[in-house]
Design a protein that fits this description.
alpha+beta; 6-stranded antiparallel β-sheet; 10 helices
Length: 317
């Protein structure tokens, strides 16, 4: 079956629109438009002249132009005729004619002049054609299959793109915040090659000790919740797993509180409820951070956490 039945197209479009929750005045306007369009198809009405771009009726005017010049060759010449349609009205009418006769016949100059990507054009045309009840033959539908392309831009940034027909139509960047990027650059300049965890939005650094032991420190920047508070750098190193219902005894909790009061302990023990871990933690102001403090606190939480694990005869973290 070639093309679409213009009268049926108007009937179905009007019927679909009437099922939407529109006001009584819009419903009356829809009936008038339907009657006008059907008479236009049968030649009972002479051609209208008001086809300039009007934001409130772009689609209706484009459909009217399409009904008058459904042949693509005639439609492409309409800009130099007495009808003088607006650019938006003309473009939408050309898209409808592309459905009617085949999208492939529309010249590249028309496609390029629009602000839509080709993928958006193909999608719009396929959707309109679907509601028109016709089979789409202008191009393979595989051109409309969207895929996700995820790629690493650098050590702390990655991109995700939606790709249609081999071309990205939308992209976003994910990764470290501006403050985290600054911290990463500063650490790298002093020999700390921090690893960025995209899922947790934090850095991690591994310390190696004797006896083939190691300890991981997680570094993040905490945003203030209360007004007038400062951004903080948090250093945290786990030292005991509390998963699967494991809990510290009252004696162990008391001993940790005593440890926290030790003047030689420049950090604190704390429980992370999200990870179900006992950790060694310290916070430092981001604004006043200098390298000597960074180096000290990062290595200190690792040292204290590893010392606690040694007491448990473990080296899990």
């Amino acid at each position: 079956k070639e093309g679409i039945d213009l009268a049926a197209f108007v009937e179905e479009l009007s019927d679909f629109s009437s099922r939407c929750q529109i006001s009584e005045s819009d419903s009356e306007a829809l009936k008038k438009w339907k009657n006008f369009s059907l008479k236009l198809i049968t030649g009972e009405i002479s051609q209208p002249v008001r086809l300039f771009d009007d934001p409130s009726s772009l689609i209706r005017r484009a459909i009217t132009l399409f009904l008058m010049r459904s042949n693509l060759d005639r439609l492409l010449k309409v800009k130099s005729s007495s009808l003088q349609p607006g650019d938006s009205v003309f473009f939408i009418a050309v898209m409808l004619a592309g459905i009617y006769e085949g999208f492939a016949r529309i010249g590249n100059e028309i496609k390029k002049s629009s602000s839509m990507s080709e993928a958006a054009l193909l999608s719009s045309i396929a959707l309109c054609n679907k509601y028109g009840g016709e089979r789409f033959r202008s191009f393979p539908e595989s051109k409309l299959i969207a895929t996700i392309d995820e790629y690493q831009r650098d050590a702390i940034t990655k991109g995700i793109s939606i790709v249609v027909d081999g071309r990205p139509i939308a992209s976003i960047s994910l990764g470290a915040s501006y403050a985290m990027k600054g911290l990463y650059g500063k650490a790298k300049s002093h020999g700390y090659n921090l690893e960025y965890n995209f899922d947790l939005d934090q850095f991690q650094y591994h310390f190696d000790y004797d006896e083939n032991r190691s300890q991981t420190v997680y570094i993040s920047i905490t945003e203030p919740i209360v007004a007038d508070r400062k951004k903080m750098i948090r250093y945290a190193s786990p030292c005991m797993d509390l998963a699967e219902g494991k809990k510290l005894t009252a004696k162990e909790l008391y001993e940790l509180l005593v440890k926290n009061s030790d003047k030689d302990l420049n950090c604190r023990y704390a429980i992370d409820p999200q990870r179900n871990q006992l950790q060694v933690v310290v916070d430092q102001m981001l604004d006043t951070n200098d390298w000597e403090e960074f180096d000290f606190f990062c290595s200190e939480v690792a040292r204290v956490a590893d010392h606690y694990e040694r007491g448990l005869n473990q080296d899990k973290f």
